[in-house]
Amino acid sequence: xxxxxxxLTFLTSLFFSGVKAQDQPSPIIFIYDASGSMWGQIDGKTxxxxxxxxxxxxxxxxxDQQAIGLVAYGHRNKTDCRDVEFVxxxxxxxxxxVNTALGNIKPLGKTPLAYSAELVIGKLRESKEKATxxxxxxxIESCDGDLCxxxxxxxxxxxxxxxxxxxxxxxxEETAPLICAAKAGDGQYYDADNAEGLSEVLQEVTKxxxxxxxxxxxxxxxxxxxxxxxxxRAYKAGTKExxxxxxxxxxxxxxxxxxxxxxxxxxxxxxxxxxxxxxxxLESKANETVHQTISFDGxxxxxxxxxxxxxxxxxxxIFPTGSKKASSGGRTYGREDxxxxxxxxxxxxxxxLVIKGPQIFHRIDSVQIGxxxxxxxxxxxxxxxxxIGVVSGEELVDAVVKVTDPGTKKVEASSRTYTAPxxxxxxxxxxxxxxxxxxxxxxxxxxxxxTFSLEVKAGETVEKILSIK
Length: 469
Prior knowledge:
Layout: H1 2-23, E1 28-33, E2 41-42, E3 45-46, H2 47-60, E4 68-73, E5 84-88, H3 95-104, H4 113-127, E6 131-137, H5 147-157, E7 161-168, H6 176-184, E8 189-192, H7 195-205, E9 217-223, E10 226-227, E11 230-236, E12 242-247, E13 253-255, E14 260-268, E15 277-284, E16 290-295, E17 299-307, E18 310-311, E19 314-320, E20 328-331, E21 337-341, E22 344-352, E23 361-369, E24 374-381, E25 384-392, E26 395-396, E27 399-404, E28 411-416, E29 426-430, E30 433-441, E31 449-456, E32 461-467
Parallel strand pairs: 1-4, 1-6, 6-7, 7-8, 9-16, 17-24, 25-32
Antiparallel strand pairs: 2-3, 4-5, 9-10, 9-13, 11-12, 11-14, 14-15, 17-18, 17-21, 19-20, 19-22, 22-23, 25-26, 25-29, 27-28, 27-30, 30-31
Helix pairs in contact: 2-3, 2-7, 4-5, 5-6
């Protein structure tokens, strides 16, 4: 009996030690940008401060059993393209060690992205363990390396890792090599423009580890039949609890979703007024890859505003019916202007520029438009010209002129005549109607004032010259 108990105890200990080993997550290795450009500022704080703080906060939220490594580059030598250091090794790495190390790193040198990846991959080659590699950079390769080629070669060699890359404050035209490397590393490239964006991205990438099964949910996005770059976010159905993200890069994005029901929000990342599309109630299935195709074929409003049949510069705002927040807007500059949105019902506001008066605003309510539909919106404003001048004999007199709507008592326009022929008489472009004009002289002729009514008719010019002594 005693022997049996010993055997059972031994087998139980083996079982639980095996479970523990199996449940132990693979290391996460952060490659941290300490190049000189990290002294640059965003919203009044250096990128170094933002990145260090956000990364520390992210690491604090990782499970206690998570092994963490930290590699820094550009922190010891201003010109050395081999200035890359494994600051905290994954075997001994703890949250406190990594956070302490982050606080001691000061930006200084270059951006050897490819060599940094080579160093990390070399460690994985030696240890034969798999890992998630997260590279954070605010710049592109500055040491003639080819990061994408390094990652591709390592994958071809059979080294097991997943690489995510976070571009912090990068320009769009700088991202192509990083996108290439992330895709080669079975990971994702993410943009982050500020502290909030960096926090959101790091929260996500630390969940998308090498231990996670291969993607079982794919997304592609199109606009007018052409693939477009888009960001897909999967939420637990009926909530805003983010589960996973994927980017299409004008191709197909992939993510892993535990079998269940999800809401998918997809946002176009290329120039478009189309709002994110939400597809609710999508099911992820076990042992099956589910694909969702998203169409951003928007509805188009062609807006043309005129004044007395002449194309006129006009401000445009387009609101979903019932909403006070505009979905789109712009300025026509006297030409037909295009606004692309999701299908739906909209209220459209037009405000004529340069013209003054109570009728410079026009609103069209409850315009229904469908996906792929183009609808023309046209309106013609009307105006006339009022010219008000002040003279004393042959001399031009400087005066303040106010144009008031007698019904509302609102001053619609005001200006001065000065003493130059191009301003005296002063011209006012006004919507048709009767106005109250008040004139008060200035300078050596100060003390004269007069108020009178003036009717302005569409397409006509009316002139009034006041003569004072």
